[in-house]
Amino acid sequence: MISCICLGPKRSGKTHLLKALQDNDLIDETSYSTPTIGTNIYNIVFPTNTHGEDAMKPKPPPPPPNEANTAEGVGQKKSKQLPPLKSIRILEIGGAMAPIWRQYFDDVKKLMYVVDTSNLCQISAAGVLFYSILAEPRLQKVRILLVLSKMDYAYRQMRNEALLMMQMSKLQKEIRQKVTIIEVSPVTKVGFDLIYNWLKIP
Ligand SMILES: Nc1nc2c(ncn2[C@@H]2O[C@H](COP(=O)(O)OP(=O)(O)OP(=O)(O)O)[C@@H](O)[C@H]2O)c(=O)[nH]1
Ligand SMILES: [Mg+2]
Prior knowledge:
Elements: E1 4-7, H1 14-22, E2 39-45, H2 53-56, H3 74-78, E3 87-93, E4 110-116, H4 120-134, E5 143-149, H5 159-165, H6 168-174, E6 179-183, H7 192-200
The protein binds guanosine-5'-triphosphate (GTP) and magnesium ion (MG).
Residues 8, 10-16, 32-33, 35-36, 94-96, 114, 149-150, 152-153, 185-187 line the site of guanosine-5'-triphosphate.
Organism: Stomoxys calcitrans (Stable fly)
GO molecular function: GTP binding; GTPase activity
Region (Disordered): 52-80
């Protein structure tokens, strides 16, 4: 059973990102992904030595009771006793399938939503679509990751601009879920350690 799904508008970068997370060397600036008509499954085995947050941060002493990871919120606290996952299977559902995404919402534990920061015409609509997903009753307890993709493009929107266009601050007030936001590029691998760390949370 697949408990993590990846959604986002057409061409937002889901396939590119998931392929790169699955095999770091597969995607570079020459790579091209074709539109997903239907679904794709990715089995992501986490690298044992990521060079990001985990590796750089000195291992903290046993967690102080009031230390909350602001990026992950309350849900992470609950699952702290469980060991981190070693791998995860993710189901990408193509943007072309948006009208029937909701058929895949049963038993979902994590949801990644990918937005293309280089596509000015799409960002606001992506925000509206995101809101409609977050309002879904079956997804009220789901861990949510908002991925701002294509961060390697010089003409992308910066994080704050993209979030403004998506009306995220307004959206956050309306929804119950805590949303983690990560800027990513499968080409430069920026944000990969943060994504792996998020995916590892049991
Ligand atoms: N430079 C760059 N190009 C990207 C990036 N992500 C995706 N692309 C390009 O954008 C195109 C669309 O990306 P896909 O990963 O196929 O998009 P998708 O979200 O899977 O699209 P659907 O399957 O149609 O929903 C790819 O062919 C890549 O050429 C990125 O981070 N950087
Ligand atoms: Mg795709």
